[in-house]
Structure formats: structure tokens, C-alpha cells
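yo

u said u wanted the structure for the complex thing, so here. seqs first:
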Amino acid sequence: MRLTLHVWRQASGSPSGRFERYDMPDADEHMSFLEMLDVLNNRLIEQGKDPIAFEHDCREGICGSCGMVINGRPHGPVQRVTACQLHMRSFKDGDDIWLEPWRARAFPVLKDLVVDRSAFDRIIQAGGYISIRTGAAPDANAVPIPKRDADSAMDAAACIGCGACVAACPNGSAMLFTAAKISHLGLLPQGQPERFSRVLDMVGTMDEEGFGSCTNHGSCEAACPKGISLDFIARLNRDLIRATLGKGMEVEAPAGGAG
Amino acid sequence: MELRSRVPDGPIEQKWDKHRFDLKLVNPANKRKYEIIVVGSGLAGAAAAATLGELGYKVKCFTYHDSPRRAHSIAAQGGINAAKNYQNDGDSIYRLFYDTVKGGDFRAREANVYRLAQVSLNIIDQCVAQGVPFAREYGGLLANRSFGGAQVSRTFYARGQTGQQLLLGAYSALERQIAAGTVTMYPRSEMLDVIVVDGHARGIVVRDMVTGKISSHMANAVALGTGGYSNVFFLSTNAKACNVTATWRAYRRGAAFANPCFTQIHPTCIPQAGDYQSKLTLMSESLRNDGRIWVPQQPGDTRAAKDIPDAERDYYLERIYPSFGNLSPRDVSSRRAKEMVDNGQGVGVEKNGVYLDFQDAIQRLGQHVIAERYGNLFDMYQQITGENPYQVPMRIYPAPHYTMGGLWVDYNLMSTLPGLFVIGEANFSDHGANRLGASALMQGLADGYFVLPYTIGEYLTSNKAGSVAADVPEAKAAEAQAAETTQRLLGVNGKRTVDVFHRELGRVMWNECGMARNATGLKRALAEIPRIREEFWTDVRVPGSGLELNQELEKAGRVADFLEFAELMCLDALGRDESCGGHFREEHQTPDGEAKRDDEQFAHVAAWAYQGPNATPALHKEPLAFEYVHLATRSYK
Ligand SMILES: Cc1cc2nc3c(=O)[nH]c(=O)nc-3n(C[C@H](O)[C@H](O)[C@H](O)COP(=O)(O)OP(=O)(O)OC[C@H]3O[C@@H](n4cnc5c(N)ncnc54)[C@H](O)[C@@H]3O)c2cc1C
Ligand code: FES
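structre next:
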């Protein structure tokens, strides 16, 4: 199939960029989207031009490296699919494809489609963990966890940290990312002791990093390649209220009881 | 060079305990004075950096990713082994030890394997305490499955995303230490060399991948957790950036490379679809628990799977290996698939796969059970191939997946270069000539959480070298060399892209040093590789400059190292004139096509030492003794 690509080009270290047009006369429907870009890049290099920088690694939808806005949608037209798992059969002959980096205040562009997402790491540093020393753990089966709670924790833990939620949000909020981690840990008994300090610290850092606030727009959930649910944001908000009111400081017994 | 394995004396059950007691402890107040560099933030690197930081050392951790959470470990699907015996099905530390030594076809060091089986118990405890959401039964206890040829259910898993959840656990521990100030993280930083001062590894040379700046970082010891080298084949299941640079550079500085030819070809990957293919996707081996593998009996049969009646199908693994059937080990299953395809019985348009069929399981258990077990894998398969595996059988074919070879390490995980430790897939240690499914995650975390943090102390206390400055001549020289290589790559300005060379190398390696090898082919490869390397250095085109984010330059440096490393791999494969595990030399097989080991001549680790740019490397042998698991022919029939 013949495609026309309009790609955001921004030089390394430069504050601004612009769209450039590229013809892709022979894309194959079985190619993955990134393979199509590989083919284009190899041609650009042969023509003495600078290839398009984009991030990728696993190409299996799990590492969270890839991510670009394709025709106005983070990760492109297919729901619950990362850019690296998108295949050209989702496009048709003659299509125009617009490619842009994640656009958010907290994710500065480094080059072309590559952005700096290290703010996510700093949110995790603020409390996205359970404080357990290596070697200090009790037997793994000492605390049974209801399957339902373990499953919900896993639903939240499935987040790949790609940043599509931020890119999709008109406010550039990182609520879905933060809520996923808070819910993952908050649903487990092991996560209870730090549950309320965690939510205060992580949300505080999220604000400091320049992410916008959440106005329940919901586009994050629609853009999330892993289908992380908005319910987790509601859960975060409940924990946050309790933490701010100071009620949550005592340890809560049953996992997930409040959620 | 002397290969001192430093395996402690005494009965195997007591070696690790005794060794831990004998190791010198580092005074808590002194730990702060020791700086340790950890390269890599996969399971091995992140676990090590977090634990060392927690112990009080000053840790610097480097990764070429933008975040430690992206390491290739994230992609592991199936699970992690541990001898918990929660299923009461007869598992034990000894059985996991036994299975691993046997599964590795008697080419691993017994003492290391035993320790691995011992600490496997602690790993699961640790991960659960960190909040890793392993699968659970309705009663709330941990669920297990049997995996990759094991006859007990000892594999813990988190849906099809076990690696992700384990890595996120280690990553959170690491981020906690970063916040506490004990670990300094250097993302987007690629290690290009090891700095050796007075015969000890004392630092690394790093390129900042955003600004291009090349600089030195010094420490009292260096640990590499930089993963495996399957991408020497170009097409593999590894993430695109996985490469051999860190271990190869260490090899060139004096660390011996052990068993480079021991590579694992995974039996269940999606077959290649076209020339543009950039990587191969693994379908977790757990699928073999419920899927049946078959090909049409008639070569060249073009009927759709559903039109081929049962009587005209060859369920070849069930036929040849009645007791293990579809769960036969990876090397055996892979080789048999290749045989079927070579014989014209392959399926799919390209005739380059075999079927993995779930019809029976769906009928027996219902689609919802299959969906619960493998839903995300089925979705992934459909996304990639456009075919619905609930309705038509999956097509699979073997692909390079894991590398058992790596830098040689002693019982303390130290390489032959003093002060340089190697953990995770990057070392050669525990899997012999073939790794069992779900054992790599276990080994990475064992090394990182429970072994290195103890053993490194012994080195630090017995080598009281103070800190060295980053401007010692050795550091400056290594930096200059890295800068020069970068300039050389940019300066060739030829006509072909890096990918073209990488694909060509991959083709040679897959054909001559892949699933089956023979002397003629390996000699051919040994002639081809230097030719490709020479053409690379005269005709590659790397655009842009060294002082910017330049992905082609990163790739070029990695491929340049693969082009050197590939030769060592073939040399090792040629030298090992026997078949064992994943190393199948066609000259050495039984009449029915099983691998034939030669214990008399080859019950050793082959460790290669660098002798200079154009010199043949020197081969050193660490003899292997099997005192507990007696040498026997592996049989899965
Ligand atoms: C698709 C797939 C599925 C798998 N499934 C399973 C499974 O179910 N069970 C199992 O046990 N095993 C599985 N494995 C194997 C297992 O995932 C790996 O062996 C293991 O995760 C390796 O961990 P590691 O920490 O050694 O290395 P990696 O996770 O590969 O980490 C390497 C780290 O080193 C860094 N690095 C490398 N070189 C440099 C450099 N020069 N400079 C700076 N940083 C560098 C990288 O950035 C990264 O952080 C699977 C492998 C694949 C490919
Ligand atoms: S490249 Fe890993 S998620 Fe897309």
C-alpha cells in the first residue's frame, strides 16, 4: 500500500520542530508499524538524510518504550495496542499518517518522537514501593490474599509506564499512571502500612513534576494500551481524601476493603 | 590464566552456608566508603543495585534505557521456578538442582546450581513481600504451573507477564534506594569499556546517549548485569537493543568468555513473515501445557488445518517422546520442529512453522479456561498474525532466545578480571548447555538479591585499594579509545546501513551456528564473518554526529562488537566437537537423531581469553566433576 507520512522532526537539543512529509510507496500489510518506520529510516540513511528518532525496544507491547501519537491518538487507531504491536493491516492504501511525539509539559521532547519520561521514575521514587529489606520477607504463603484482590492488583500492575495516558489527557495529567501504582500496592496486604503516606507523596510529586490535574475527562483510559481502568483513579481519590483528613494513618486490616 | 572456581569444600548442602560464614564481613561504617558500579537494571542489575544500596554501599547504576523499568527482563512471560513444593508434588531443593544439572546436559557447575536451587525459596518470599501480584488459587495461596518439561509444578507466574512484575518489584526496590540517596541512577548511559587499573576493574567508560559526552566513572568494584547476546542472530526474541558490548569489552580487557556457543533456541515463537521482519515474538512455552504440536504427515500438504483429519497428522513430539510429549525440553523440541520443516512438512504460507493446536484443550476445559490461562498471549498472536488462535491452530517455529554462555565467573560471581563481577544472563554460570524454562528469572534474581551482595564484600575487604580518580591515565586512555571508535564509525560514510550488515551477520550465524552445526558450516562462517566485518568498516553509513541523540550510532557500535564476537562463538562451536544441550553438532548424534555427548573430552567449561586484535584467543578449560548428579544420557522418551 502507498502511504504519505507527516512526521514531527525536532533536532536533538532544539526547542522547536516541524512536520515533514515522506512517501512510503510500498508498505506491506503484514509489517508492524515500527517495521514500516525501519524501512523508511533505512531509505533515509541511504539518501544521506537523518533517520527519524523514535523509541522502541521489546516490540512486544510490554516495555513501554514505544509511544507516539498516530493520527491524533496515542499508539494509533487500534484500542489496547501499543505502537509496536500495531500492524499495517490497520491502515489502507492512500492513507495519510501523522506522527507526533507525546505532548505534555512534563515530557520534554529530546529529538523527533523521543521524549523524556523520567518524571514517571520520580513519581515512583516518592513512594511507589513497599519498604522491605532484601532477605527480611516471611514465607510467601504466610499471608493468603483473596484471589479477587490479587487479580485486581494485577490489573493495576499491568501498567507499562509508556505515558500514553498523559499524552491523551487535555491537562497532561499523570493520574492514571499514579493511580495504577497506588492501587496495585494498596490492594495488597503488604502495601497497607505505607498506603496513606504513599498516596500523599506520590500525588505531591506528580504535581511538582508539572503534570496537570485530573478533570475526569477519561481519555487516558481510552488511550491506555493495557486498559487500565478509571476506577483506579476513583480509588486513589478516596485514599487521598482519607489521607488528607488524617484518618488513614492507622493501619487498615483487610486488603482492598476500602476500595 | 588460572580458572579458580573457588567452590567451597564440604557436602553440597552445606557449601553456601559455610561459605557465607567464611566470607569476611564489611564493617557497616566502611560500606559507605566503597563505591560499586552496577551496569544494567534488569532483574540481576536492579536487584543487585537495590540490595547493595540498602546494605550501605555507594552504588552507581547504569542503563542504556530511559528508565530501569524497560530492561529486557520485562518481556519474560512464563514464570519463575522455585523449589517451594507448595503443590506437595514431590519437589525439593535437591530435585530442582538435579533437574537443572540434567537439563543443562551436564555442562554446569554443580555447586552453583545447588545454591541457585537453595535461594530460589527466598526469591519468592522477597517478591511477594514487595507486592508482586503472583497468580493465586481461590483459597488465597500461590498458584503454580508446570513449565518447560518439569514434572512438578514449581513455576510461579503473574498471568503472562511474570518478567514484568518481577522487574517492577526490583525496580521499585531500586527507586526506593535512589530516593534514599544510596544509589545514583544513570539512565540513557551506555557503557563502552571497562577501566583496568593495576590489573583490577576499577571503572567504566560511558557515553551519555542524549548529549554524546563520553566520560569515566570509577569505583572499588564493577558488576555487569547486561543480559544476553541472542541478537547476534539479528532475528531473536530479545528486545532490539540487547547486545554484547558490555561483556565483549570486558573480555577484551581480560575477562574470559565461557561457552559462547551455548545458545538456546526457543521452540515456540511466531515464524518470520517477511524480509522486513525486525524481531521474532515468543509465545510462552506455558502454551505447551495445553497445546498439541503437529504437522501434516504428508510433506507439501496445503490443506487448511481443520481439513486434515487426525489420522493424517503427525503429533511428532507425542510420538517420539511418549513420556514428555509436548513438554519435551526446548533443545529437543526445537530440533524436531526444524526436522519437520526441513522435510517439507512445515505449515503456513511460507511453510516455515509447525502447528500448536488448542482444539482439544478448548473442548476439554472450555474456551473461558483457556482464555483465563493464556488470554493475553492469544491476543498478542492475533494482533501479530491476524489469525484467531481460538479457531485455527497457532503456527510456531524455533527462534534464538537465550544465551547460556557468558563471562566466566567463579563461585563468588567474579570474572577472571579481579573486581569485575558478572550477574544474570551475562554470566555463564548455572544453566550448562541448555536452560530450563523459568530458570533465567530465578538466576537473575538469585545473583542480584542473594549472592552478589554477600560475595562482593569478600573482594572489597581483601583488596583494600582506595578510590581512584577519574583522570588516571588508564581512564583517559579508555575514554580516548571509545571516542576514537565513535569517530571511526561516523567517518566511514559508506553506502550500506547498519541493519544491512546486522542482517547479513544474522543470516550467517543462523545458518551455520544456529540450531544444528557442523564443522564445514562453522569453517564457512569463520571465513564469512571477517569479510562482513571488513565490509562494515569500509562501507557502513552512520549518519549524524557523535554529540547528539544518535540511534544509528548506538546501533553501529553494538553491531561492530557483534561482528567480532560472532567469530568467537563459531570458534567455540567448532572446538566443542560433541553435541550437548543446545549445541547440536550434526556429526555427533545417535541413529535416531539424539545429541551425543562426549564426556571424556568435553566435560569442561571452555573459557576463552583475549590475546589481542588479530590473535587467536587462548582456550582454558575448567573441568567439571559430577559428584551428585551422575553423568547419564539425557532421555526424554
Ligand atoms: C521473550 C522472552 C521471554 C522470556 N521468558 C522467560 C520466562 O518466562 N522465565 C524465565 O526464567 N526467563 C525468561 N526469559 C529469559 C529472561 O527474561 C532473561 O534471561 C533475563 O530477564 C535476563 O535478565 P538480566 O537482568 O540478566 O538482563 P536484562 O534484563 O537483559 O537487562 C540488561 C540490562 O543491562 C543494560 N545494559 C546492557 N548493556 C549495557 C551497556 N553497554 N551499557 C549500559 N547498560 C547496558 C540494559 O539497559 C538492561 O538494563 C525470557 C526471555 C525472552 C527474550
Ligand atoms: S517497544 Fe516495548 S512496548 Fe512497544
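Chain A has two domains: 3-111, 118-245. Chain A touches chain B through 79 residues (CB under 8 Å).
cya
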